Amino acid sequence: MSSKPCGNCKKTVYINEKIDAEGKWYHRACFKCMAPDCKTGLTLRNFQMAALDDSEIDPLTKRPLKVLVCKDHVPMPKHSFSRDSLSLKHTLSAPKPSMAGIHRSLMG
Length: 108
What we know:
Blueprint (H helix, E strand, L loop, with lengths): L2 E3 L6 E3 L3 E4 L2 E4 L20 E3 L16 E3 L16 H8 L10 H4 L1
Antiparallel strand pairs: 1-2, 3-4, 5-6
């Protein structure tokens, strides 16, 4: 295939002008951070793919589409714990460390 649509502007990208990142082709001018008000130029060494808060939804997977972003705009994962989460319950109910069973010569 000698052309594909650009992953950013959707116009045709020809093989002699392509930047191929994660299976998508981009024009050199379109290979930039897609975060609002950023537009930092990217390279194959520093680009990242991430779903932004306002990303379009993929009709097949029903998940946000990933777009090009710079390191400053990679969304941080949203972690949340509740006292009912299983891993937190195990942590809170774990036995407390003690010196029982430690050989006296190792204790000093």
